[in-house]
Each structure stands twice: as C-alpha cells, then as structure tokens.
C-alpha cells in the first residue's frame, strides 16, 4: 500500500512540472506586455525597457523559465503589483478559504450524489428514480452562478435563514459555527452540478454491477437484499465512481470562481477574477498554479482511495 | 448460465426493456428539440420581430416589473426592454457557444485523428500534451487564457474552445486508433492513397458519429461557460450583451429588482436544458451502448405469475426436488420468449441428475428458476410447481427463500472468476456465507471457513483465507466456490456448468471432488452441463433438454448406451472418445430454434435426420419407454431397427 502511494506520488511529479511549464508558457508566449500593464499605456519606452530588464523579461525564454522555476522552489512567485505584497502570501491565504468551500462542496456532492444514485438505481423506474432523474437534469442545466442568485433571493432575502455573502460575520463572528452558517449556501450551490453528475454515474454503475455474476452469488448465498445492495453492489460501484469524484474536484475548484464572486467568499477564485481585471499577471499565474497543483493532489487522493477498495489496482 | 446471459444480451441488443421509458426518453428529447428550435428561431428572427431596440435606454422607465405596459418582461436598470435584450442576447450566446463548439471540434478532432492514425511517437507526444491540459481544472485554464488575451467576448470564445479541445482529441483518438488498424484502411493504403486522403475519405466518415455525439454533449456546457465568463465581466463587454453579462448586470440590482437577473438566468437554463435533452437523445441514437434504458436492475427474486386454477400432480414422496410443468419466460419488449416450456424434474436423495443440452436449451434457466435466481426483469416464472422436500417454493415467502438459498439449497456457477466478488477476500466471502445461516461469531466462522477450504483440498487454507479471488487459479477459485456452497450443509447442490471454464485436468479433479463430497455430505446434485463426458463421470440419471423442454430422461447408462431421442444421439456423437481418433465428430446441422418462434410438433424436427410428416403436427408427449425411461419422440431409437434417414 505504502509502495503504491509512493509510486503514485512519483508519477505525479512530472505532471506537476508539466503544469509549471504550461502556466509559464501561457503567461509568457501570448502577447501582452506586463511592463506596459504595470506602468500604464502612457509609459515611456525607456521606462518599459527598464522595468522589463528589472523583471528579467529581456532574457531568452528557457532561461526565464528556469529562473522562474528556481524562484518557485524557494517559495517566490513574485510580487503582486496591484496588492503590493508577495504573490505566495496572498495566494496561500486565499487558497485556505477556497479549500474550505471546495472541500465542503466535494463532501456534499459525494454524499448526496452517491445516495441519490443508489436510491435511483434501487428504485429503478419508481417515483424516486424519476424525481432524482429530473433533479439531476435540472441540476446539470442550471448555471451555478444563477443557482447562487436564486438561493440568495430565497434563503437570504425572503426567509433570512442564511447570510447572502462573506465568510464570517463582520462583527462578533469568526468561530466555527459562524463559518458553517456562512458556508451552507455557497457550498450547496457549488456542489449542485457535481452532485448531479455523480448521481447519474452512480446510478449507471449500480445498475451495471447489480447484473454481475457475483451479485447473483451473493443472493444465492441467502444474503439479505440490503446486504447485497449496500455491501456487495455499492462497494463495486464505488470503485468506478471514485475517479469521477476526483475529476469533479477539478470542476468544483474551478466553479469556485463563480461561487466566490456571487457570495463574496474571500477565496482564490474571486482573487483571480480581480487580478484578471487589473492585469495582475503574476498573481493570476500563482493562483492558477496553486489550484492546478491541488487538483493533481485531489486526483492522487482519489487514486489512493480507489486502490484501498480494489486490491487488483494495488499491483 | 449460458441461456440466461444470452437471452439477456440479445434483449439488450434488440430493444429497450421498458416501452414506457423508451417513449419518455424520446418525448424528453423531442421536448428539448422543440424548445431549442423555438429559441433558435427567436434568435435568428430577432431583427424582424416587433421588439424594442435592445440598447435604447429610458431612465424614466427603469426597473419596471414584468407585464408592465409595453415591456412584457419589464426593464433593467437603464430602462432597456428585457425581452428584447434576452432575444438579442440569446443570439449572441448561441452564436458564441456554437462557434466555440465548432472550433473545439475542428482542432480537437484534428489532433485526435492525427494521433490515432499516426500512432507511435506522434501519438505519445500529442496525448501527453492533452493529458497535461486535462490536469488543469477546466474553468481555471479558460481564466488563465482570458487573463492573457484580456477580457472580451471573442477572447472568452477562444478560451472556452481551447479548453474543450482535449475532450474531442481524446474521444476521437480512441476511435481512430481502433479504425487505423482495420482492413479497409490497410486496403486503402495499399491502393496508394495518401495519408490525407485516407484520413478524410476512409476514417473521418466513421469517426463522424463520435464527433457529433461529443459536440452535442459539450455545446450546452460551452454556452454555460461562456455565459459564466461574461457573468464575471470577462466576456461580453458593454454595450455588447449576452445572456451571461445580462445576468451579471442584474446581480447588481438583485435585491430591488430580482427579475432583471431572473429572466436571463431562466433563458440560459432553458437553452442549456433543451440542448442537454436533445444531446441525450442524439447520443442514444448514435451510441446505443450508452442508452439510458439499456440497463435494468434484476430484483432479489424472480417474479412469479402463475395462471389461476393451474393444478399439478401431488408431490412425489421422498423426492428432494420435484419440479412439475415449470414454465419460465422472458419478456423482451412486446415479445415473450418461452425459455422453459413445461419442464418436469425429479431428484431423489443423494442422487445426481445431469441436465444436458446445448446453449440456449433452457437448462440454466430451469436450474436458476428453482431458487428464483432468474433475473427479473426480464424473466418470470409463468407456470408449474417447484417443491423442495414437499415444500412449495413458488408459494414460499421471500424470507423463506432467502433462508433456503445458501442453506438447504446451494449453487456453484460456471465462471469462478466472475462469480466471486473481486473486492472481498476469499475468507470474507465464505465467512459471510456461514454467518448468513449460522449464529456464530466471526472467529468461529473463520475456523469453519478454514476447515471448508481444507475439505475442498486447498493447500495452506489459513493463508488462502486472506487471498483475493484474482490471486487464485481457476481451479482454486472453483474449489472456493464449492467450499462456499458446502458452508451450511446443503441438501441440494445446483451446479451450473461448474467445470466448463476449467481446463481438462482441473475439470477431472473438481468432478472427483464433487463426487466424493456428495457421498460424504449426503447431498443431492442437479448438475447442468452440455458435456456428456462430464455426465458419465458423475451423474446417476440424465435429463436432456431441447428448446426449453425435456426430450429424454433415463439413467446415465441407458441414455449413453442407447439414446432414444435422435437429438440425444447427435449430442453424444459430439463427444470425442479417447482411443477412437477416426471417429467422425458430428456437429449437429442447423441451429436450435429460437424460443420465441417454436415450430409446431417436435422442436427438433427441422434438424432431425429421421423426421416424418407426423413429427410436425400437434403436441408430442414425453412417452415412457419402460425401465423409468422416457422420450419425447414419435419414433424413438430404442427397440427399433436402424432405419435409413429419410430426410437428410
């Protein structure tokens, strides 16, 4: 098991390097001059050239990448000119908030997606199946930013159950209950689409598994239907659903961009949107890199969990 | 097993099991098409419709509610008519979404085609790049691209198209890879066609359905994402507006005038939902494997629908198993397949009965019907009686059946790899079987499991308990299955081709083991096989099945030495005999009849060398021939001088 995890970690290293390369290239190759962006359109060419030299932008590309990578290893992602603080500090601070939001959403979509999928498969063609199918259809067709607005209108404005924005109350907040209170609506909104996708897949996986020979064996052993479904079938279905949950982590991390904007959650997504508007390229670079790297780790975790369930994958 | 699986498979191929579901699915796709067509028409006809100018501001009329005079959906913060803006915004969103899809489809398919066709290093290089792109959270990559290109609708379009390229590349590459090794591509190459010609004229047409399916499933997503970028203020810039930027504008006045945000939001929702519905429909048509209705869940026990007033002979005293007039059917769409058409079986104590027949003869279905293990849907027991030591199993409660399953009646199935659960250790599976029927703790059950493994002669039983099924050989796995079947002192063992998946030496060992255990444990065995060699090794009596009915029964010796039914004769002739290499192995000409279309009279008549006109008329009974034998034949081979075949 440990050997397997080590192997997967090693395999993740080239992927992480690939990410740094792509992030670097996107930012470096496509036209757009950071110096001009920083100094504004009315900067003199001399000033632009001086800043370019200062930022190391006059050197050849491979050299720039290596310098950038070297700095990265030392925890230096550059300095955000708009915020006037190190990119890494800002990114890590923001990333915590995103991780709380995305983690909660991932938890919600896993639990409810799996439950809905099982119910839907077990009660195939029954009313529960129809309700789930309809909800899934609505869920994956509703833009999450629109769903967020609807929830705000209904639960924050009309019913006043939950706050419409922020991570903590401005006065007297800051503890865990306060965080959870603020977390409910953004997490539910962020989880909606992923829940639909996972439910749909779980349903299919359960139906696929329930017609396998080993399910007939379980029944032939005289096991209760509950045990057949929740122990034998569910475990097998889970093995094929877990990688999908890993992929959903990517959609949840990315979708956080919308949700953080709608609910003014102080996460990395909201930061990115602002940074793009202010053309704060280094901040965008740092933010994208950190989120992408965390996505690689989410997928790694999914792989490891999958292999704990399925002995055939451990070799 | 063969029969069950085969019928189920053909069911999956021919049509979906639930007609209502089929209609519902189609209706949903139709609804999607209608909504989409309506919205597209609105968007296309926008300049011709009697709408207010979308950008005409009217500060005096700002934030009018829906159904206001002259503004059906109200006005926004600048007093612009929302209905008009939605129609025009729809035009932009649709154009952007479709363009992004076409761009992504073009470049993605190109990469996929080249990678799949070229193979080798080109393939590896291209696909590594694609994998790398897919390692990014999708929306994040789009943001990074917009960050560099700068906000704007066209840049958002490029970004969304770019991040969707990997989906197309992957899907198309997979299909192309399969096609590139096919004969018709080789033929084209040998005929001197250039690579470009082959790609466009040979491969592309075959890949097209996949491209279309991928397009139909991603276009809704792309519309959603471009709207999202616009919502964030990174897409359409004022005064240009798409549905997403309208929603973003509406958000600013959300608390005062929610309709300004709600209306474009609903429009996006309707648009995306209609596309998704239609996409599902297209996928179902072009890629039948993914049909949502193709999978049905078998329930715990076969459905039983006995005709009212059906009577059967009294139970035979002393019989362990007494099956009378069993009818099991499969309902496939509107077709009813009569897989088992009235079967009688009798099994005495410690007796071994061989149930023999070709694939599709209904022998497995007969065996699986006993404990209600025929999958429903599509299967159902439609008549007859099954009695276990006099107890009517068809009238028994589900709880009672569960008690009997694995208890008094246990099963050994054909393929020991697929019948053992791959995710539980061998020990766990045996322990579970023990504890389902005996009130023992885990440690005690483990001891018994170990003893069982020793009983079926598995070396190192202690260690083997912790082995996974995939770590054992086929023979070992089947021993585990037998150990599991013996866990609770079964009185009846139903073995469904337990040796078919094994090689010959292992087969002999397993048969010897079963024979030994039968005498030690005093169990009766119903042994399903298509192999007369196996029958002669183990069975006391034989019942031969053809097209869902018993055509001959008798002791193994009688039937093997002088078969009465021409079909049995043919079956026996199929078995190679050691030391008789010159003997001609007769395959039986023709195919077994389809059970939904049985000929009148004898079902074997079309393949029978001895067929007479009488054979094709009326019902032919299973006639006793003396000595406890019986055959369903008007002209049995026994007590009969060999006549030349009249119809060969």
Task: Tell me about this structure.
The complex is a heterodimer of chains A (315) and B (648). With 315 residues, chain A is mainly α. In chain A, 78% of the residues lie in helices and 1% in strands. Chain A has twelve helices and two strands. In chain A, helix 5 crosses helix 8 (176-210), helix 10 (225-263) runs parallel beside helix 11 (268-277) and helix 10 (225-263) runs antiparallel to helix 12 (281-309). The N and C termini of chain A lie close together (9 Å). Chain B is an alpha/beta fold and 648 residues long. Chain B folds into three domains: 17-45 and 61-294, MetI-like (MetI-like fold, Orthogonal Bundle); 343-544, P-loop containing nucleotide triphosphate hydrolases (Rossmann fold, 3-Layer(aba) Sandwich); 552-647, no CATH class. Helix content of chain B is 48%, strand content 12%. In chain B, strands 7-8-9-4-10-11-13-12 form an eight-stranded mixed sheet, sandwiched between helices. In chain B, strands 1, 2, 3, 5 and 6 form a five-stranded mixed sheet that branches. In chain B, strand 2 (321-332) and strand 3 (335-347) form a beta hairpin. In chain B, helix 9 runs antiparallel to helix 10 (259-286) and helix 17 (474-485) packs parallel to helix 18 (504-521). Chains A and B meet through helix 1, helix 6, helix 7, helix 8 and helix 9 of A and helix 4, helix 5, helix 8, helix 9 and helix 10 of B.
């Amino acid at each position: 098991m440990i050997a397997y995890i080590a192997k997967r970690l090693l395999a993740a290293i080239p992927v992480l390097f690939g990410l740094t390369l792509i992030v670097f290239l996107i930012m470096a190759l496509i036209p757009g001059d950071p110096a001009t962006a920083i100094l504004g359109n009315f900067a003199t060419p001399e000033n632009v050239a001086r800043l370019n030299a200062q930022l190391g932008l006059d050197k050849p590309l491979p050299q720039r990448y290596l310098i950038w990578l070297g700095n990265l290893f030392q925890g230096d992602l550059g300095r955000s000119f708009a915020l006037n603080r190190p990119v890494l500090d800002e990114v890590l601070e923001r990333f915590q908030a995103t991780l709380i939001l995305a983690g909660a959403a991932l938890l919600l979509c896993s639990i409810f997606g799996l439950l809905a999928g099982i119910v839907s498969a077990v009660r195939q063609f029954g009313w529960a199946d129809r309700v789930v199918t309809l909800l899934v259809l609505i869920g994956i067709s509703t833009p999450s930013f629109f769903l967020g607005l609807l929830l705000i209108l209904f639960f924050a404005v009309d019913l006043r159950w939950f706050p419409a924005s922020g991570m903590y109350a401005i006065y007297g907040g800051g503890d865990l209950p306060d965080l959870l209170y603020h977390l409910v609506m953004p997490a539910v909104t962020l989880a909606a689409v992923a829940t639909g996708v996972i439910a749909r897949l779980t349903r299919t996986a359960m139906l696929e598994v329930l017609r396998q020979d080993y399910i007939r064996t379980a029944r032939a052993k005289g096991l209760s239907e509950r045990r057949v479904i929740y122990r034998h079938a569910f475990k097998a279905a889970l093995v094929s659903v877990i990688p999908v949950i890993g992929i959903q982590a990517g959609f949840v991390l990315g979708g956080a961009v919308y949700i953080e904007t709608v609910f003014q959650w102080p996460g990395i997504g909201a930061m990115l949107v602002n940074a793009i508007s202010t053309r704060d390229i280094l901040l965008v670079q740092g933010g994208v890199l950190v989120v992408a790297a965390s996505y690689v780790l989410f997928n790694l975790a999914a792989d490891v969990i999958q292999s704990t369930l399925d002995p055939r994958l451990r070799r | 097993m063969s029969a069950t699986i085969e019928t189920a498979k053909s069911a999956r191929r021919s049509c979906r099991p639930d007609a209502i579901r089929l209609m519902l699915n189609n209706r949903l796709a139709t609804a999607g098409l209608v909504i989409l067509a309506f919205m597209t028409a609105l968007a296309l006809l926008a300049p011709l419709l009697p709408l207010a100018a979308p950008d005409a501001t009217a500060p005096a009329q700002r934030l009018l509610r829906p159904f206001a005079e002259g503004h059906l959906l109200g006005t926004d913060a600048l007093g612009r008519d929302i209905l008009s803006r939605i129609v025009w915004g729809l035009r932009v969103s649709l154009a952007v979404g479709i363009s992004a899809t076409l761009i992504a489809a073009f470049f993605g398919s190109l990469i996929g085609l080249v990678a799949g066709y070229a193979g080798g290093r080109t393939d590896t290089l291209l696909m590594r790049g694609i994998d790398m792109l897919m390692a990014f959270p999708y929306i994040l990559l789009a943001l990074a691209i917009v960050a560099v290109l700068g906000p704007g609708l066209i840049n958002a379009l490029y970004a969304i198209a770019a991040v969707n390229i990997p989906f197309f590349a992957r899907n198309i590459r997979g299909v192309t890879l399969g096609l590139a090794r096919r004969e018709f591509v080789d033929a084209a190459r040998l005929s001197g066609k250039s690579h470009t010609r082959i790609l466009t004229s040979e491969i592309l047409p075959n890949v097209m359905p996949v491209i279309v399916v991928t397009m139909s499933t991603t276009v809704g997503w792309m519309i959603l994402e471009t709207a999202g970028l616009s919502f964030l203020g990174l897409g359409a810039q004022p005064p240009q507006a798409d549905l997403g930027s309208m929603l973003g504008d509406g958000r600013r006045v959300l608390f005062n005038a929610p309709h300004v945000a709600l209306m474009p939001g609903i429009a996006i929702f309707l648009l995306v939902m209609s596309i998704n519905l239609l996409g599902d429909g297209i996928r179902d048509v072009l890629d039948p494997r993914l049909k949502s209705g193709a999978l049905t869940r078998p329930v715990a026990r076969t459905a039983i629908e006995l005709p009212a007033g059906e009577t059967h002979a009294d139970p035979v005293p002393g019989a362990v198993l007494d099956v009378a007039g069993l009818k099991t059917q499969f309902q496939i769409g509107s077709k009813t397949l009569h897989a088992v058409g009235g079967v009688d079986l009798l099994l005495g104590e410690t007796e071994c009965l061989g149930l023999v027949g070709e694939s599709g003869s209904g022998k497995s279905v007969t065996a699986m019907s006993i404990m209600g293990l025929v999958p429903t849907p599509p299967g159902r027991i439609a008549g007859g009686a099954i009695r276990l030591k006099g107890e009517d199993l068809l009238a028994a409660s589900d709880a009672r059946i569960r008690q009997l399953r694995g208890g008094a009646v246990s099963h050994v199935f054909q393929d020991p790899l697929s019948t053992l659960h791959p995710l539980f250790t061998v020990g766990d599976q045996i322990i579970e079987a023990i504890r389902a029927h005996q009130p023992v703790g885990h440690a005690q059950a483990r001891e018994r499991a170990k003893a069982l493994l020793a009983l079926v002669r598995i070396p190192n039983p202690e260690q083997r308990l912790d082995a996974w099924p995939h770590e054992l050989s086929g023979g070992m796995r089947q021993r585990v299955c037998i150990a599991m079947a013996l866990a609770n002192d079964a009185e009846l063992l139903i073995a469904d081709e337990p040796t078919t998946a094994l090689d010959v030496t292992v087969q002999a060992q397993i048969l010897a083991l079963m024979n030994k255990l039968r005498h030690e444990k005093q169990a009766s065995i119903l042994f399903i096989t298509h192999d007369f060699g196996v029958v002669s090794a183990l069975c006391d009596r034989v019942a031969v099945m053809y097209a869902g009915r018993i055509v001959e029964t008798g002791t193994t010796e009688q039937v093997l030495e002088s078969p009465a039914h021409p079909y049995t004769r043919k079956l026996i002739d199929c078995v190679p005999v050691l030391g008789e290499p010159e003997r001609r192995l007769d395959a039986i000409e023709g195919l077994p009849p389809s059970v939904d279309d049985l000929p009148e009279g004898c079902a074997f008549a079309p393949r029978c060398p001895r067929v007479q006109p009488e054979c094709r008329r009326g019902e032919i009974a299973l006639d006793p021939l003396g000595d406890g034998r019986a055959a369903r034949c008007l002209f049995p081979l026994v007590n009969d001088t060999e006549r030349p075949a009249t119809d060969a």
